[in-house]
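PROTEIN DATA CARD
Card holder: Acyl-CoA dehydrogenase YdbM
Chain length: 379
Origin: Methylobacterium iners
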Amino acid sequence: MSAPFAVDDVAALARAFAERAAEHDRTGGFAHENVAGLRAAGLLALTVPRELGGQGAGLARAAAVVGRLAEGDPSTALVLAMHLLQHGIIHHESAWPRSASAAVGRAAVEHGALINALRVEPELGTPARGGLPATVARATPAGWRIEGRKIFSTGSPALAYGIVFARTDEAEPRIGNLLVPLASPGVRIEESWDHLGLRASGSHDVVFEGVEVPADHAVDLRRLEEWRRPDHSQQAWSTTLLAALYDGVARAAQAWFVRFAQTRTPGSLGAPLSSLPRFQEAVGENERLLALNARWIRHLAADVDAGAWPSVEEAGFLKLTATENAIAVVQRAVELTGNPALSRKNPLERHLRDVVCGRIHWPQHDAVRAAAGRAALGL
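Structure generated from the sequence above:
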């Protein structure tokens, strides 16, 4: 069984990640040493069930770990969040065959094997907005042959498995997930990720060229209409972990801002900036938003762990609100710090670029508001 993590271990990892974060951000290089640290600490087995040798953690513990590590390096925290999300779902709330879910669970425990869902495509965008994937799974005598391209594949340089969203070539196509070991012949990673924020997340393109998988690796294929039902577990886990991640970025920015206010003493003032009421108010407003984030994340995660699933709308509200609060915290710190905050040498500049990525992560905020509006209007 994987040894349970200690809070001190997570804090130490976050500090180590923070020391390397600026360089990884500058180069856009994947933080392999950070993933090695996660593996050594047993965190890749965190949400694997105990019967498979994992730690059996629920959403509350997973969110706490992701949030703390995001204070050090949100790119690595995102890689971990996506991995924990998959294990949090596939062992409990999915249609996966037991043999497949047990195999990836044991691989995470014994080898620290990373997994993520590969869903987004150049033509389709995110499948959550509808449409058929261009990635095709063709039946073969032994199983399936996969052709296609996935973009924004977080953690791709270190993934052992991809859960590939595809359609079949049947007369009446099914769509869904196939489990693909990414060491398979025909899998190719194109290093395309060069974004404003979360630059070290390794969210490259993954190309599938005649990739063969056994029949039992089609872990969840359904008719199109069956995918239109809300997935409460997917939404709750995803939104909570993303809320925790971006909240962690804001906490790192707030910690820097507090130290700046305490130690910066302009000659014209003759006292630290913390003596000024407007700085005291700004720090206090940030504390208010972070306190609300902490309570909402903690309570929604506790509900999930108790089996009280939030509605899809409520889970979306959590991610939207926590993310907007996090962005406001970082923007306020930047505004009051002034020009130095936008220097590439200043971590606030990186925190600002990282935190605004929260508006892009699904569920995007327009979709959350529109879905809630349609429900309220009975449409």
